[in-house]
Design a protein that fits this description.
Elements: H1 5-32, H2 37-42, E1 44-48, H3 57-71, H4 77-80, H5 91-95, E2 98-102
Antiparallel strand pairs: 1-2
């Protein structure tokens, strides 16, 4: 079975573009609104652990691309930390000194 080089190039390009869009989306929303659209709909936000302020563009972008990716490897073990840590922080929260907070009470 021969796989064309063209398929690998297109696949890599599409992966890179998709990563870049995710990076820019997360960076913009965390730095300007404190949450992505989904988090806003749930009434939660992500803030800096030390200051309680919104994340910077870079911290938000890397948290949601690199950090969340690392939390999922292997077998989503980075997410299991929420069951054992104060403040229910996952691996990406520890890596980027962030925490998730409730911004609107549950109704």
């Amino acid at each position: 079975i021969t796989i064309s080089l063209n398929i690998w190039v297109k696949g890599g390009l599409s992966l890179g573009v998709s990563w870049l869009i995710s990076f820019l989306y997360a960076g913009y929303f965390y730095s300007s609104r404190g949450a992505t659209l989904g988090k806003m709909a749930l009434g939660i936000a992500v803030v800096d652990q030390a200051t309680g302020q919104r994340l910077s563009f870079w911290k938000g972008a890397f948290r949601d691309t690199i950090g969340v990716g690392l939390s999922g490897i292997p077998l989503f073990l980075g997410y299991l930390l929420v069951f054992f840590t104060e403040g229910k922080r996952a691996l990406h929260d520890f890596l980027f000194q962030s925490r998730v907070v409730l911004v609107r009470p549950k109704s």
